[in-house]
Amino acid sequence: MLQVGEVCRKMGLNPQTIYFYERIELIPAPKRTESGYRLFSDKDVERLSFISRAKALGMSLDEIKDILKLKDGRSLTCQAMQARLLKKLQEIEDNIRQLQGLRDELLPLVDRCRQNANHPDPSHECVVLEESE
């Protein structure tokens, strides 16, 4: 059994993160010593590791909670996991498209600023965001 500080060092987590996960029921309330210190089992650490991995893959805490409910109920099939991963992948691809569109809008503005950077009047205000093409 590990105390919260040991778990945090081992996993690179902030204690407040673990307390928050406990509050929102991502992890079950750990056992406690007589003096009230939280004690985490290997199973608890594995669950925290699963949560960290899912977060690193871009999953929201609500998505992780949904997956953990299936996992706890022993009904996390590969099909169920695949459906969730495909949904996340689609969200990421949509974000990439949106960011690429934004990039395409910003590049000409940056170029126009670069062209106007050497304006002969040093007090000349940049109006690229006010201009319409």
UniProtKB/TrEMBL annotation:
Keyword Membrane among UniProt keywords: no
Keywords: DNA-binding, Transcription, Transcription regulation
Pfam family, one: MerR-DNA-bind
Organism domain of life: Bacteria
GO molecular function: DNA binding; DNA-binding transcription factor activity
PROSITE patterns given in the database record: HTH_MERR_2
Residue ranges of domain HTH merR-type in the record: 1-70
Signal peptide range in chain numbering: none
Entry protein name: Transcriptional regulator
Organism the protein comes from: Tolypothrix tenuis PCC 7101
